TrEMBL record, chain B:
Lineage: Bacteria, Bacillati, Bacillota, Bacilli, Bacillales
Record flagged with keyword Protein biosynthesis: no
Entry-linked InterPro entries: MetI-like, MetI-like_sf
Family: Belongs to the binding-protein-dependent transport system permease family.
UniProt cross-references to PANTHER family, sorted A to Z: ABC TRANSPORTER PERMEASE PROTEIN MG189-RELATED, ABC TRANSPORTER PERMEASE PROTEIN MG189-RELATED-RELATED
Name recorded for this polypeptide: Sugar ABC transporter permease
A Pfam family: BPD_transp_1
Species this protein is from: Paenibacillus segetis
Keyword annotations of the record: Cell membrane, Membrane, Transmembrane, Transmembrane helix, Transport
Length: 293, 272
């Protein structure tokens, strides 16, 4: 390479980006680790004292705080399973050439572009115990037994919120999987057909192994999204009733509001660790199973 | 023959399923046209008394929608432009340099794709730097969207042959001109995608703005929904009119630029 070509990619071009990213993303992540060990109740480090593991102990032992950990896991697992299963069914159906294919893809993806607050409000209305159309519909078709206090019954509220999240993001998951399906050459199916494969065998031996990369990503993206959930929960239940739908996100927001910065930060560090612990093995495990085309 | 029949069944089933998405949209639209008493029933019937225009006028007057609309633009547009410029420059350099430093920087950026941000320490930093309100929200949102932007641009830069850079430099082009006059225009397809998805992400943001914009004067449109419902929780007609107005810009953009939105939103999640 001629000498004059060596410095054409000047590093100073990355400086503004790293300045902002460093100050408002990387530095807070590192600082978070420090703050989580402090007893700090104002935005002033001079009034802070070392708290050791107290913040973490509080998060893990206080029932109010620790329900958030449990709920985050329930929320992440329930939503991921439903989004991936439903998304897969939709993707397989919409990978066939129907007259309405494009229209249906557009419609199913639509909820993903709305703001979570709007979606949350729509479902707050739909899940109203007496007037909401979900219960009205169940009563009309004679399934009164299934009608619930969707958002006010502490036992099911977290699942109701999970359902809203599923409604919003299933179309998105469908598109990820659809993109994977479309990379599979038609000839593979033709070959399978000549060998006498049934529809299920074609799915099991051709489709599924070949969409593994897309599947992995759909799974990882949804798991992270589920663990990080904040918007939808905050806009629908704000963590209530009581602490029935408290998740990491709402917990951090509450700690922030009440000035318990150390505990809030400890909760968000735990979330960070959980995300890494969950995501990396899943990613590794599923990546190993991918087949080369 | 049976194949044709099967197709009809699938077609009908698909349309039936799409009602799950369509009914909620229809519900907010039709209820935003009703009077207060009818809307309180939040059902799917046609309005007995049409109040379409007056509902929307009342909502505009009481919801602080104009101010919020201006705030949303003020927050979103500059942030998106900064993201595009910074990410394009960074991705180009990081993709072209084969260095330890550049691969370390790429890894730091990729980390941001899945590690959740630490909002409380971020708030501390903003306090220390004396940035607040819009500037703070904008900087935090820019930082949060940088990983996605750099990731998308790096993928795209791979497809631009390095011979272009070399011949430009040998022809006497300065490194700066190389980026701005030759490379940047070539990035246009992904710039359009990134523009649209970051625009929507920031426009719809709630998780960050709720921390930094905490006064009705600096609420964005998305925050007005939350606030408006708090104040008018029994006026479902007005609440739904508010939801419609706030969602309309995003829905219009979605129908105009569907392809870019879908490819952009799912880009980080699909390999190859």
């Amino acid at each position: 390479m001629p000498k004059q070509l060596k410095n054409i990619y000047a590093y100073w071009l990355v400086i503004p980006c790293f300045l902002i990213y460093g100050l408002f993303f990387l530095l807070p992540s590192v600082m978070g680790l420090g703050i989580s060990f402090l007893n700090i109740r104002s935005f002033n480090f001079s009034s802070a004292s070392f708290a050791g593991l107290q913040n973490y102990i509080n998060v893990f032992t206080d029932s109010y705080l620790n329900i958030a950990i449990k709920n985050s896991f329930i929320f992440a697992i329930v939503t991921t399973v439903l989004k991936v299963v439903l998304g897969m069914i939709l993707a397989v159906f919409l990978n066939t050439k129907l007259k309405t294919t494009n229209l249906l893809r557009t419609v199913f993806f639509l909820p993903a572009v709305l703001s979570s607050v709007a979606v949350g409000l729509i479902f707050t209305a739909m899940m109203h115990p007496t007037r909401g159309i979900i219960n009205v519909f169940l009563n009309t078709i004679g399934l009164d037994v299934l009608a619930q206090n969707w958002l006010t019954n502490p036992h099911i509220a977290i699942f109701s919120v999970a359902f809203i999240e599923v409604w919003k993001w299933t179309g998105f998951t469908m598109v990820i999987l659809l993109a994977g399906l479309q990379t599979i050459p038609e000839s593979y199916y033709e070959a399978a057909e000549i060998d006498g494969a049934t529809a299920w065998m074609k799915f099991k031996f051709v489709t599924f192994p070949l969409i593994m990369p897309a599947f992995t990503n759909a799974l990882v993206v949804n798991l992270i999204g589920g663990l990080k959930a904040f918007d939808i929960v905050q806009s629908v239940t704000q963590g209530g009733p009581g602490s029935a739908t408290e998740v990491f996100g709402t917990l951090v927001y509450k700690s922030f509001g009440s000035g318990r910065y150390g505990e809030g930060t400890a909760a968000s560090i735990i979330l960070c660790v959980v995300v890494l612990l969950v995501v990396l093995p899943v990613y590794k495990f599923l990546s190993n199973k991918e087949v080369e085309m | 023959m049976s194949n044709k029949k099967g197709r009809w069944v699938i077609e009908a089933l698909g349309l039936l399923l799409s009602l799950v998405v369509i009914i909620p949209f229809y519900m907010i639209l039709v209820n935003s046209f009703k009077n207060k008493e009818d809307a309180a029933l939040v059902n799917l019937h046609a309005p007995t008394q049409w109040q379409a225009i007056s509902n929307y006028i009342t909502m505009f007057q009481e919801g602080g929608v104009w101010t919020a609309f201006k705030n949303s633009i003020l927050l979103t547009v500059p942030s998106v432009l900064v993201i595009i410029l910074l990410c394009a420059m960074t991705a180009f350099v990081l993709q072209r340099r084969k260095h330890k430093a550049s691969s370390l920087m790429s890894s730091l950026i990729v980390l941001g794709l899945f590690v959740p941000g630490q909002i409380i320490p971020t708030y501390f930093i903003c306090q220390y730097l004396h940035v607040s309100s819009f500037l703070a929200a904008a900087l935090v949102l820019i930082a949060a969207n940088i990983p996605m932007g750099v990731f998308l641009y790096m993928g795209f830069c791979k497809s631009i042959p390095t011979e272009i850079d070399e011949s430009a430099i040998l022809d006497g082009c300065s490194p700066l001109r190389l980026f701005f006059q030759i490379i940047y225009p070539l990035l246009q397809p992904i710039t359009v995608t990134l523009f649209i998805i970051t625009f929507m992400a920031i426009w719809n943001d709630f998780g960050t703005t709720i921390y930094f914009l905490n006064n009705t004067k600096n609420f964005t449109l998305t925050l007005t929904i939350f606030n408006f419902f708090g104040v008018h929780s029994s006026d479902w007609n007005l609440v739904f009119a508010n939801v419609i107005i706030v969602s309309l810009p995003v829905i219009i953009v979605y129908f105009l630029a569907q392809k870019q939105i879908i490819s952009g939103m799912t880009a980080g999640a699909v390999k190859g």
